[in-house]
Amino acid sequence: MENHYILSVLLGIPLLGAFFILALPRHNASLIRWVGLFFSVTTFIVSLILLSKFDKLNALFQFRDEFEWISTLKIYYSVGIDGISLPLLLLTTFLTPITMFSSWSSIQKRVKEFTFFMLLLEVGMIGVFVSLDMFLFYVFWEFMLIPMYFIIGIWGGEQRIYASIKFFIYTMAGSLLMLVAIIWVGNYAGTQSAGFTTLLSQYYILGPSIPIEIQKWMFLAFTVSFAIKVPLFPFHTWLPDAHTQAPTAGSVILAGVLLKMGTYGMIRFSIPIFPQSAQYFAPWISALAVIGIIYGALVAMVQKDMKKLVAYSSVAHLGFVVIGIFSFTPEGMQGAVLQMVNHGLSTGALFLLVGVLYERTHTREISEYGGIAKITPVFATIFLIVCLSSIGVPGLNGFIGEFLILLGAFRSSVLNNQAFAIVAASGVIFAAVYLLWMYQRVVLGPVKNDKLLSLSDMNTKELISVGLLLIFIVWIGVYPATFLSWSDAAVNNFVLKTTRQITGF
């Protein structure tokens, strides 16, 4: 396989799998599941081949594949990855087969459609992380909404229609802002004799020269769109409903990958194209992120539903990522990239574990549980490890990401206020409160409900699904250099370029 086409092949495999699924007989659910798993695992294997060929010392985009798509507007099919997009691409291809495998018994109706939409969703997610043309990025960004809308709306909980529509409307509102911004900057390029184009490489050159008063509005249009997806406070209200009503597979993908598209968009678009505006708004955006950390944690504390508690924890955890991004320091940016992966692993594992309990008891109410450590010791042990990783205990993945983010925020000359790091650090304490308190009420103490006495421990399928995530939860915590080395060159180049554009030196 030529390196030149490997990303296009990566996009093509799940797309081919989705259409292959359509040709299979509906009644043969087992065959459909195996075929879906085959195509998603194949996609992951190809991503590992890509990783083996990736040059960690090269800060530029690699595996470029580009041709003119809409010639009259200079819109290109342009794809490539660097050290920032690589970890998120691997996270996408890693989580997709795990979620499909974990749904083997929980999804019983319309298996064909579910598998079809999961593969289409993977196409959209991969496309977002590899697009180097703004129009192409927007197409994948919008395309991804459709399968997730159906996954929540068909296989979700009792209020699934409300949650799926709310999710769709919120994200569409942000997408329209992005579309306006893309047209605006494209038209601006035309007035500068460059012609209308949507290639990122052109805007990395043109963007910083845009007058600051115009640039600020363009920056806000992009950034608000991404903030809704993160979701950054106060744009977060769609998330708890979507998470609570989505099936377990939907929640894992939503938390594990989809939320990262917002923070990734800030790194790929908002900051490098509009660096002066990013510097101007950095303290304000970081302030919203700090509010989100505290607010998300406090609201998580009072939740009665385990899934909603984990959903609000995402608001807090993604707040850390945003602070790291807008610190404009190598440490903060490295921590943000790593923490995006960490959150996908830890929160994905939490949703899988909540799904394990829900499949057996059909309730997520914390008050219905208690004392299950005596009945399901394996589950209790794994649940504790994942909770500790989400809190950020040293030796597990969450610690190193949060440490780098707080270090970067503390050293940041753009934020120029250590209060951001100090107040954000309190979120770690709050995380310990709501997660350990939930663990205590669900797992420890006396058995409150006689129905729990017949609870079975985790089966082989569930152990494989969560165990694969545990490997990386421990690996990143013990030896993060493996993963930090992927993004090191790209992050340093990003920070250096952005700083030069801001200062003019």
Uncertain regions spanning at least 5 consecutive residues? none
Structural class: mainly alpha
The H-and-E topology, N to C, reads as HHEEHHHHHHHHHHHHHHHHHH
Number of helices: 20
* Fraction of helical residues: over 70%
**Total domain count:** 1
Mean pLDDT: 87
Approximate strand percentage: under 5%
Structure report:
This protein is mainly alpha-helical and about 500 residues long. The protein has helices spanning about 5-20, 30-55, 85-100, 110-130, 135-145, 145-155, 160-190, 200-205, 210-230, 240-245, 250-260, 260-275, 275-300, 305-325, 330-360, 375-390, 395-410, 420-445, 460-480, 480-505, and strands spanning about 60-70, 75-80. It has one domain (about 5-505). It is about 75% helix and about 5% strand.
Features:
mainly alpha; 505 residues; 20 helices; two-stranded antiparallel ribbon
Short précis:
The chain is mainly alpha-helical. It has helices at residues 6-22, 29-53, 85-102, 111-130, 134-143, 145-155, 160-191, 200-206, 212-229, 238-245, 248-258, 260-273, 275-301, 306-325, 330-361, 377-391, 397-411, 419-443, 460-478, 481-503; strands spanning 62-70, 75-81. It has one domain (3-503).
